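Support request, please re-run this one:
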Amino acid sequence: MQRFSPNRWLDDVIDSGATLTNLLGVMPEFVFNTPADPRDRDHKLRLVLAVPISAEWGSAMEERFGFQIMQGFGMTEVGMTAWGDRAESGLEPGCCGYIDDEFYEVRIGDPETDAPMPRGEVGELLIRPKYAGIFSAGYYRMPEKTVEAWRNLWFHTGDACRMDEKGRMHYVDRIKDCIRRRGENISAFEVEQILNGHPDIAESAVVGVRVEGAGGEEEVMAVIVEQPGKTVEPKALLDYCVPRMPRYAVPRFVQKIAELDKTASGKLRKGDIRDAGVTADTWDRESIGYEVPR
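Re-run finished. Output below.
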């Protein structure tokens, strides 16, 4: 297909007769949020590689469309490094599966030192190949970026992950999308999933912003796109968030925009949002004395 469209997706898979496909970034959530259709199971799909998956809609999507979702981890630079095991029952959101250790060596490293992190703790995913020629050789005409990514003989993915007791890798978020607030690590992806569950929100992006008085750490800012014809009041949105997430993850700032910028593959472009930070049209809960209940 020339371009992904959630509203045309079902037509595309039916017309093509495909039995396998993939859905990356926000694509699977957008497909799931389309209205139910009597033809939802009139396709030949049996397996869909989809990452990342949320608990809010992952299993429900399998039930609705009648296919199995498989998770994994891959990058253009390194190829597919981890795969889920189809034999394991139950969809576990964020679980990328087992490392393909025939070809790759993997470490969950301290983001500052690259030292190995204890099992179960979150760190940066570091990868290196076991065979020549299966990895990218670097970034074209960008030697400084190549050196930056390849440090201490490891390729630095920029992804925050952890390993469980079974040896399965779990994706948490992009390192830069892990917000550090008052000693707590917050996954922007997890907050976004809760915001996207609000009936009047079409989509959202969550970033950490640095403001005076935060002690060098960050505050949580939610950027939301309202559903057509709907209005979301910031205070009411926080009331919605409070029972659904840890109190330290409840956004301090709320900003409304008409559309979120994305890459061709459906990934959110957060750089401009993060760089702009708090602007004149950003709502601040401290401006009305809103306090998150303990």
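The longest strand covers residues 154-163. Residues 182-287 form a domain with the GMP Synthetase; Chain A, domain 3 fold (CATH 3.30.300.30).
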